[in-house]
């Protein structure tokens, strides 16, 4: 093999090797499915009737992703479904002892974070304990590492 043939072969091999090396930050990462819920629990019965909890449901997000559905409990027997919500999303309901509280969501995140939560406090006008609270939260997150070069 002469030196020019060797040089062409070497350059071809190096070219193929370099072409197959991609920038990790530019590679497509599959979105992470965010199908989750806080679980369903009952409002405590340790408060005198007709005391109720003011429960605020919230879903927030940042980065790249989509939420297709939010499902929450409002005291009726059937959960409420919100299709394609706009974030940030909030809803406040009044729940009474033995009613279910909880929130869920469906969506996906490719480079970002979603958080859903609920916080409930006993209505002060209902005469119950001021410190009585209910809460729950879940996070779905996928962060891509970005590559940087230093000269």
UniProtKB/TrEMBL annotation:
User: Where is this gene product found?
Assistant: Cell membrane
Alphabetical keyword list: Cell membrane, Membrane, Signal, Transmembrane, Transmembrane helix
Q: Which residues form a coiled coil?
A: none
InterPro entries for the chain: MmpS (IPR008693), MmpS_C (IPR038468)
For this record, an example GO cellular component is:
plasma membrane
In terms of Pfam families, this protein maps to: Mycobact_memb
Signal sequence span is 1-19
Q: Which family does it belong to?
A: Belongs to the MmpS family.
Q: What is this protein called?
A: Lipoprotein
